[in-house]
Amino acid sequence: MKTTLIRPIQRGFGGATPKTRLPLTTTISHHRAFSLSRPPPSYPGHVPLHPIERTALAIGSALGSFINPRRADLIAACGEATAQPYFIYRLRDAMLRDATGRRILRDRPRITSKSLDVAHLRTLAPNTVGRTYVGWLDREGVSPDTRAGVRYIDDEECAYVMQRYRECHDFYHAVCGLPVYREGEVALKAFEFANTLLPMTGLSVGAAVTLKRKERERFWQVYGPWAVENGLKSKEVINVYWEEWLERDVDELRAGLGIEKPPDLRDARKKEKERRRAEREAKGAQG
Predict the structure, then answer these.
(1) 170 is in an annotated binding site
(2) Binding site annotation covers 169?
(3) Whether 244 contacts 171, CB under 8 Å
């Protein structure tokens, strides 16, 4: 009896037989497209990201903004990349739980020099929210039109929440009286982190290590403790309908939110400069 040896069928890349095997380049291209597939944009300007891309963006933008804190584009990208999947939804839900927050989400106002009529704000009474805000803009040389549009937040409603937070940032500066000096920005980011829990604001507090020695001391002794205490105890600042407060008293707003204004940072820096100048003059006179 003759025995027939049956050979197993050899299969090529991807399980195909030699006759039906796809070219190697075609197979690799197919798998790459599958692994990095993106959904369509959810709103104009939206850039959907694969999780790997989002992670890379978060790390790269965080490092870049730490090296150069003036790179607003990197700070914005870091804020969006790290806000998902949890933190921006938590902030959106905080707005949904609040009657004013829900109205803001429904109306979706934008903060620009035209929507606020900056020229009109300069005519308001000195202690109004609008005059305090525009006074801060003029003193710091800042414009409300410089806030970049949100690109990397996937949910369309959450994208607006991030945009609203971004455009309200200067109102937080004005109400708290903090200038745009680096230590003022670090103090405000600490306040925002305690109030909003957005990771980017917490990461920004790490810039405290880049402050000068006297600035670091002032931050840890005065402005850091103020930021944590007031950020935790105050109401959610994202729920302030700033457009409706422009002609009302700024002290009334602070009291309603539960925010205590910190010591004047500009005045503290001025006194420190005067002290150093006096010391140098005294040493020069002795020499």
Answers:
(1) yes
(2) yes
(3) no
